[in-house]
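Practice problem: predict the structure.
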Amino acid sequence: MKNKREAQLEKILVQMIQPLKKIPFELVIPSLFEVSVKKFDLKNSDNKKTLDKMAKAMSCVCKNIQKKLLKELVLGNDIEEYVIKALKAEKLNASTPKTKQGKITGIQILR
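Answer:
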C-alpha cells in the first residue's frame, strides 16, 4: 500500500509524462541519444532478416531467464545482460546506449 507521499509523487510523475505521449518516437529518440530512427519496412529483406534475428535472440533470452529463478532478477537492468548477449550471438551490434550527458539508459541495436 502506498503512503500519501508516494501517491503524490506518482501523480506528479504521471502529469509530467502526459505531454510526452503525443510526441512521435522518431523525434524523441534522436533528441535523447543523437541517433536517427529509420523506418522498419518488413518488405525490405534486410529489415526482415534483422527482425528474424531479434526474434531468435529474444527466444534465447527467455530460455536463459527461465533457467534462473525470476525472483533473483530485477527485470530491468539485470535482463539487459541477457538481451545484449543474445543479440550479439545473432551477429547484431547491440550495446547499452548513453544519453547526450553520458547516462546509460537501455539497450540499442546498431546496424
